[in-house]
Amino acid sequence: MHREKIKINGDFIKLQDLLKFSGLCMTGGHAKIVIQNGEVELNGEVCTMRGKKLKNGDVVKFDGKEIEVVLV
């Protein structure tokens, strides 16, 4: 599976914001639903906390895609 790296300015990004920012979800509402439905993995485990703060190196999987957070 190809892992895309997404560069983020700041100390963290919330899970739902990453899904929207990366284009995996078109809206924040869609991101909220897929997270609450258990469709998103964070570092290999299902994560249902949409406000989860992601840090450098965290890996998110959703809809057959994998994204690594790179904080700059």
Task: Explain what this protein looks like in three dimensions.
With 72 residues, the chain is of the alpha+beta class. The chain contains 2 helices and 7 strands. It has helices at 15-22, 28-36, and strands spanning 3-8, 13-14, 41-42, 45-46, 53-54, 59-62, 65-71. Helix 1 (15-22) packs across helix 2 (28-36). It is globular, with a radius of gyration of 11 Å.
Features:
72 residues, 2 helices, five-stranded mixed β-sheet, alpha+beta, two-stranded antiparallel sheet, globular
Task: Give the structure's gist in a few sentences.
This protein is α+β, with helices and mostly antiparallel strands and 72 residues long.
Topology overview:
Blueprint: E1 3-8, E2 13-14, H1 15-22, H2 28-36, E3 41-42, E4 45-46, E5 53-54, E6 59-62, E7 65-71
Parallel strand pairs: 1-7
Antiparallel strand pairs: 2-5, 3-4, 3-6, 6-7
Topology as a string of helices (H) and strands (E): EEHHEEEEE
- Classify the beta-strand content into a percent band: 25-35%
How far is the N terminus from the C terminus? 24 Å
> Mean pLDDT, as a whole number?
95
- What percentage of residues falls in helices of 4 or more residues? 10-25%
Cross-sheet strand order for the largest sheet: 1-7-6-3-4
